[in-house]
Specification:
Strand 2, helix 2 and strand 3 form a beta-alpha-beta unit. This protein has a domain of about 90 residues: D-Maltodextrin-Binding Protein, domain 2 (3-Layer(aba) Sandwich), CATH 3.40.190. It is about 30% helix and about 30% strand. The longest helix is centred in the C-terminal third of the chain and has 12 residues. The chain is of the alpha+beta class and about 130 residues long.
Length: about 130
């Protein structure tokens, strides 16, 4: 596969409860979403060992948990909305976003159209190819 950097995703700490600080958000119902090794290092440096009530590799699972009980998790900023509140004073983390495709398909019209849509999307910050 070949990959091309198409933007970035900003992760922020959110809670199902309004007006929480970082300590309160991490103390009760923290859902640990696997955003990769770099995020795990970021989290360890900022917060030390965090006891999670749930570990997942899907943001949708974390959001479903928000609807069921008191919870907090690092999620893409674009997911903020009804029932998802930012945590006061929490550091943010930025992850690069890549599109992957077969090398022989790189210049196909359909792949180019998809890449154009992704790079032009409101949630993405365009960046250079890699």
């Amino acid at each position: 596969l070949k990959s091309r950097r198409i933007g970035q995703v900003r992760l922020a700490l959110f809670s199902s409860q309004p007006d929480l600080d970082v300590k309160a958000a991490l103390a009760d119902g923290y859902v640990s979403v696997d955003w990769g090794a770099a995020f795990a290092l970021f989290q360890a440096k900022r917060f030390g060992e965090v006891t999670a009530s749930l570990h997942t590799n899907q943001a949708s699972v974390a959001l479903a948990t928000f609807r069921e009980r008191r919870a907090s998790a690092y999620l893409p900023e674009e997911l903020a909305g009804e029932g998802v509140y930012p945590v006061r004073g929490a550091p943010e983390f930025t992850r690069p976003l890549y599109a992957a495709f077969r090398p022989e398909q790189e210049f196909s019209p359909s792949v180019q159209r998809v890449l154009d849509v992704l790079v032009e999307g409101d949630a993405l910050s365009p960046s250079q190819s890699s």
